Structure to design on (666 residues):
């Protein structure tokens, strides 16, 4: 079986450019003992991948130049030489950015496509949903009746988070950019939505919109920059912030200054908690159980933005930073 | 009895200037039922008071223009009309910035000057020591063998914190400015000391100095600005920061940008916890008990910087922002 794959041509800072990616076709070997061969059907692209393109070790190793990149992927087993895997089985792996692969079955998870469509395992039922869940439930400890500000509310993590917070009995103020995205946030159940592109003073707009909700108790940080500044300003005393990502900052050519109002951390006695989902698999079974209940009760819907074809994977990835996606950004092969 | 007191002439931002203070003499009335008259012996000046001079409510109400300011003070009862207080009793109150006062005895605490000198109740055995204790023990949860970076190590909170952390079995890297202050940090038991005024790259200097200590597990934030930037850079993954204050920022004419490396909160999964000591009196008895044991074991020493006379109180206060104090800044009357 032949497979086309996307490789990184160089490490870089600043905006992502097409020339940092190249597509190559390889011949996949037959699986040796303990290996399987898989044809991917869906690939995930996620903001955290940007960090692996810089070439400096952060919480994960950088991508290797000249090697296929990694990322979430679901597909079907073509050939198996590993116990427990048969031809036709649907599996989830980190062997993304490629059409197919032959590799060890270790760490590869079988998924049930009768329960959910295969691509959901890359979104709401996968690390994306789990990220929203960990942030809200474990980092913030959001309580019934409290108000959460979900930034990037129409994004993959944000759209899951809005629904999870509502299902937990909390109120949600969401921010997003543009009419289509704000409408989507409302559709997901957000009690108030602010279009950050349509306001001059984000902090004032959020304060105003949060008034009928009793103010902001907690903030889910996906954006950074002006959003963090506004959150420090608008949040109530003893507020909690789950710091999941700062997508506005990832493509800076050089590091830009942070908010001018960090002294609010003292004045308001705030807690800021950075986290990475992979540190928190201790709540995975809670997540699966809560998510199943919410889905059965019709409380969770999903929407994806889909690019088609392996050659479009860099475009899908670059689109994350221009706000091209509503819900989860996926590549369909 | 006559008393001279320091009043605020206006609310202000930017550097503190002498003209923002005026001294007035008042006649103290005789105490009514429930009141006492007290002659203060020692006054405390503290960085947090700066926030009360801006005129905006933060976690405490602003000082009133034309009224005597408030602050920690210890003194002796001159006349009592309140149960439980007799002439000659030593008491601690928030009626500082003045030579004497007649007011309700409510909230006034009797202190034992046989146990400790009166002024210690404004420092290591008072809110200053308690602040260091709460930050290290409750916010950070510092463990034996871990390494704490104490910023402003020669200051009031910092010098208490170095000794408390050592007494808890942790290692301490302290930062301070100039030879005398760094020598004082060493005297207090700091395992490594960096003179931030003598290095170009604070982050690199701290990393290097922390190497023999196994790196930085936790950071006690008193400074802000370049110190916070360096701490985000130098701290280890899963590091905890107790955010007690940011003295470098309090006198800015306009808010200055924060660190450029806040994405480290995500990448290193950091916890930043702002706090105010008055929210944490639940650990007060632990503090008293630990402090007594450490003092009896000779593990805690104190040093004060003393200005003399009520008219010098504004100078003492302004000195906090120019680094004029080693240990606790006090005014002796």
């Amino acid at each position: 079986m032949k497979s086309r794959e996307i490789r990184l041509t160089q490490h870089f800072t600043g905006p992502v450019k097409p020339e940092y990616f190249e597509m190559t076709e390889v011949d996949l070997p037959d699986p040796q003992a303990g290996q399987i061969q898989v044809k991917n059907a869906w690939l995930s692209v996620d903001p955290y991948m940007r960090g692996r393109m810089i070439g400096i070790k952060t919480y994960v190793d950088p991508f290797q130049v000249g090697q296929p990149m990694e990322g979430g992927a679901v597909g079907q087993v073509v050939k198996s030489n590993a116990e427990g895997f048969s031809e036709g089985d649907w599996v989830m792996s980190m062997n993304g950015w490629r059409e197919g692969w032959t590799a060890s079955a270790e760490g590869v998870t079988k998924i049930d496509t009768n329960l959910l469509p295969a691509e959901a395992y890359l979104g709401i039922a996968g690390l994306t949903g789990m990220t929203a869940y960990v942030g809200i439930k474990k980092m913030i400890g959001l309580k019934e009746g409290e108000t959460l500000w979900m930034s990037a509310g129409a994004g993959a993590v944000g759209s899951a988070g809005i629904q999870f917070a509502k299902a937990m009995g909390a109120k949600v103020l969401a921010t997003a950019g543009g009419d289509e995205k704000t409408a989507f946030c409302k559709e997901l159940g957000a009690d108030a939505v602010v279009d950050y592109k349509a306001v001059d003073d984000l902090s004032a707009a959020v304060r105003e919109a949060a008034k009928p909700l009793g103010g902001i108790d907690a903030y889910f940080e996906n954006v950074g920059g002006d959003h963090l500044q506004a959150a420090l300003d608008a949040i109530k005393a003893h507020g909690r912030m789950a710091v999941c990502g700062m997508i506005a900052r990832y493509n800076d050519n050089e590091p830009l200054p942070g908010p001018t109002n960090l002294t609010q951390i003292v004045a308001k006695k705030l807690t800021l908690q950075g986290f990475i989902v992979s540190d928190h698999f201790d709540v995975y079974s809670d997540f699966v159980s809560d998510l199943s209940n919410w889905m059965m009760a019709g409380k969770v819907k999903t929407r994806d933005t889909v690019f088609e074809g392996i050659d479009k994977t860099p475009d899908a990835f670059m689109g994350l930073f221009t706000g091209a996606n509503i819900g989860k950004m996926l590549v369909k092969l």
